[in-house]
Amino acid sequence: MKKRKILSISLFVFYLILPLHLYSQQEASFNMYMFNNQMFNSGYVGSKNYSTITFLNRSQWVGFSGAPSTQSFSYASSRGNKNLAIAVSGLLDQIGPIQVTNLSTDISYQLKINDKENYLGVGIKLSSSFFEFNSGILTPQQQNDSALFSFSTPNTLEPNVGFGLYYHTPKFYLGYSIPRMIENDDYFFVRHNYLIMGGLINLSKSFDLKPSLLLKTSSGSPVAYDFSTLIYLNKTFWIGPQIKNLMSISEKISESGSGLGFIAGLHLGRHFSLGYVLGSSIGISNFDNLNSHEILLRYDFSVKKSGILLSPRIF
User: What angle do CA 34, 82, 312 make, to 5 degrees?
Assistant: First the structure.
């Protein structure tokens, strides 16, 4: 067990500290992004005609010492009569000794394109990040290793700004965004580009198909993708597979994040939704059963006005 712990820490030091000078720091991500695109696309805010609160928790590589752990909270208002919406969110992302805290405010205008409920969301994201490096939790084989203890990090909130475009209809969406446009050498952050696409395909009165695709690019890293296909039963229960970067498993795992996942969830009454993902990483040698778990909890506020068609709760 001690040998395994030392090897785990060594791998994280190699992949997460030294390569930061060569590659970019990857932004936090979730498997159930399709239920909360707000985290990286501000144009998504106000795409529904009701407000929502969303909690997400992801525990990656369970059993691996110093494994990634990410939690997020977000609130998004409805678009209202003026088609203007605002949202707030917070995120805590921890990988070994590295911890990033991010706070964001999103403002979006939903431009109505026609009378068929087609909209183009145009949004801006204002955020601040706080980066921490805790060398105290490391146990290097060489005491007072200068590669670790001379590593300095900023200790102030770093502001940033981003934007998002989000076209959506009752059964389709397409979006492009850059959530943080300002690059920061101290944080090793570079711009990340996100392209999302998804829809709802009616198969019968009881069955719908919900495909979703996310593409993410940044300088110094290969293109990452995430694809899922969910079966939506009776507008209540969803289940389906997910694949991540399977064409890139020859790349370093810190860059590609290759894996398979299984998504399931359901609506609990009119307001609550619960989701779960079981993921398995591919391409990490010498380690077996590195599973990941993710939990979604969402609350949808009721629409006060009668006769209003609800946006699909599955988006």
Answer: 30
150 token code pair: 């001379």
The whole model's pTM is what? 0.82
Distance from C-alpha of 122 to C-alpha of 223, rounded to nearest angstrom: 25
Would you state the structure tokens that stand for residue 174, as one six-digit string?
């397409």
Q: Report which DSSP code applies to 147.
A: H
* In the block, residue with structure tokens 């590669």: 147
Local structure of residue 5 (DSSP, 8 states): H
Closest CA relative to residue 70, chosen from 241, 296, 253, 230: 296
Paired tokens of 194? 């996100």
Joined together, the tokens standing for residue 282 give: 């591919």
Which helix (H) or strand (E) segment holds residue 146: the answer is helix 146-149
Residue 8 has pLDDT above 70, yes or no: no
Amino acid in position 277? V
Length in residues, the chain: 315
Q: Please state whether 19 falls in left (phi above 0), alpha (psi between -120 and 50) or beta.
A: alpha
**Is 222 strand, coil or helix?**
strand
Work out the number of other CB atoms within 10 angstroms of the CB of residue 116.
Answer: 8
Q: Is 207 helix (H, G, I), strand (E, B) or coil?
A: strand
Q: How confident is the model over 40-91, as pLDDT tens digits?
A: 999 999 999 899 999 999 988 777 667 788 999 999 999 988 999 999 999 9
The kind and range of the H/E element at 272 are strand 272-281
Retrieve residue 312's tokens.
């699909």
Is there a contact between 232 and 225 (Cβ–Cβ < 8 Å)?
no
CB 260 within 8 A of CB 242: yes
Closest CA to 93 of 139, 130, 38, 42: 130
Q: Is the pLDDT of residue 155 over 60?
A: yes
In whole angstroms, what is the distance from residue 72 CA to residue 40 CA? 12
